[in-house]
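Much of what follows relies on a compact textual record of a protein's fold. Think of the row as the fold of the chain written in a discrete alphabet. An example makes this concrete, so a full record is given next.


***
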Amino acid sequence: MESEIRHWGLRLGYLIHDVSRLRRVNFDRELSPLGITRSQWWVLAFISRNNGLPQTQLANELDVGKVALGSLIDRLQEGGFVTREADAKDRRVKRVFLTKKAHKLMSDIEPVSSEFNSRILEGVSLEEMKNTSRMLAKMKENLVALSNGNRPKGGAESDDGLD
């Protein structure tokens, strides 16, 4: 039983990696006609949920180096998608805001993203999606605990709002 669990755990790790890589490559191709990369979209999508976040905090939240994020923000700013504004209390802090152009782009991306997700989920039932989402949420919870130097909580169901 233990060797079977190890086998399936290893297989699951490879599948997660491959699905993630293939999804990134294909989504980049889908976004190409809109003149934006998946990395740029990812930053814009995060900013849209946290408009005005300081650039350094944005780098931490996205788990991206400050220099790499700075380059992405530079390109987004040159494209007219974001602005950087000095914080009212600390002028050294730069807050990042979406522009109207970015909001339009995000609405243009929505149907592309929706259609893409429909195609990659072809043949997958809602129940399969819910079960996989619960499993991945639990794995993420365990990984976050490990990242924080804690042991994962055994057997506790995470409240992922999927039911």
Remarks:
- The CA atoms of residues 118 and 124 lie 10 Å apart.
- The domain at 2-147 is CATH 1.10.10.10 (Arc Repressor Mutant, subunit A).
